[in-house]
């Protein structure tokens, strides 16, 4: 059994990475957030899978992303804003997939700002990269799917599905 899970949030500036973490921790939407949240550890007994979970925030403006961030992460949440198509188009999946094969989760934040779903835009990306475990649309503002998002991330590490961990079986 794993002793802990390390989740890294990445994505374009201002898509809401820090807000998502603060909403999870504070159970309300923070009007003001720092550029980068301190690393937090959620104790085992309050996580659905009973495993201590570290959540690591990242901001382009704060420090450059070093390979060690990727190597330490067990799962990477790629955050985009559903009202900003560029924020998904600019994500360089090639970059992520050439690193150690960790599961990726696509996170479409700010769902409170749009009526329609962004699934149409991300479906081709999902199909292209087998590392993408799942996708979720959420809102740090109205707390929609926040705990689910971190649960999916935890689950992707603890109960991997798909071809990720058996590449030799991949067609
Ligand atoms: P960087 O640290 O600069 O990379 O940005 P970030 O991805 O951490 O985004 P941050 O959490 O700082 O949020 C950017 C802006 O979006 C802030 O004004 C937030 O209040 C706003 N925001 C974040 N999440 C949501 C959301 O779910 N809905 C809405 N409407 N606004 C949001
Ligand atoms: Mg931030």
TrEMBL record:
Protein origin, superkingdom: Eukaryota
Principal location class: mitochondrion
GO terms of biological process kind: mitochondrion organization
Signal peptide: none
GO molecular function: calcium ion binding; GTP binding; GTPase activity
A single GO cellular-component term on record: mitochondrial outer membrane
Miro domain residues: 2-159
Keywords: Calcium, GTP-binding, Hydrolase, Membrane, Metal-binding, Mitochondrion, Mitochondrion outer membrane, Nucleotide-binding, Repeat, Transmembrane, Transmembrane helix
Cellular compartment(s): Mitochondrion outer membrane
Family designation: Belongs to the mitochondrial Rho GTPase family.
Task of the protein: Atypical mitochondrial nucleoside-triphosphatase (NTPase) involved in mitochondrial trafficking. Probably involved in control of anterograde transport of mitochondria and their subcellular distribution. Can hydrolyze GTP, ATP and UTP.
Protein's UniProt name: Mitochondrial Rho GTPase
Native source organism of the sequence: Scleropages formosus
Taxon lineage: Eukaryota, Metazoa, Chordata, Craniata, Vertebrata
């Amino acid at each position: 059994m794993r002793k802990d899970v390390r989740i890294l949030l990445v994505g374009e500036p201002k898509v809401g990475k820090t807000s998502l973490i603060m909403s999870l921790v504070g159970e309300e939407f923070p009007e003001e957030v720092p550029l980068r949240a301190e690393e937090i550890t959620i104790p085992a007994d309050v996580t659905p899978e009973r495993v201590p979970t570290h959540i690591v925030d990242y901001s382009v403006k704060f420090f450059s992303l070093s390979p060690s961030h990727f190597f330490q992460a067990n799962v990477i949440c790629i955050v985009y804003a559903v009202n900003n198509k560029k924020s998904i188009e600019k994500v360089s999946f090639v970059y992520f997939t050439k690193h150690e094969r960790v599961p990726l989760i696509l996170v479409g934040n700010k769902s409170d700002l749009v009526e329609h779903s962004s699934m149409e835009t991300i479906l081709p990306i999902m199909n292209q990269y087998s590392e993408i475990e799942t996708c979720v649309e959420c809102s740090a503002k109205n707390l929609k799917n926040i705990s689910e998002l971190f649960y999916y991330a935890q689950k992707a590490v603890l109960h991997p599905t798909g071809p990720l961990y058996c590449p030799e079986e991949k067609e």
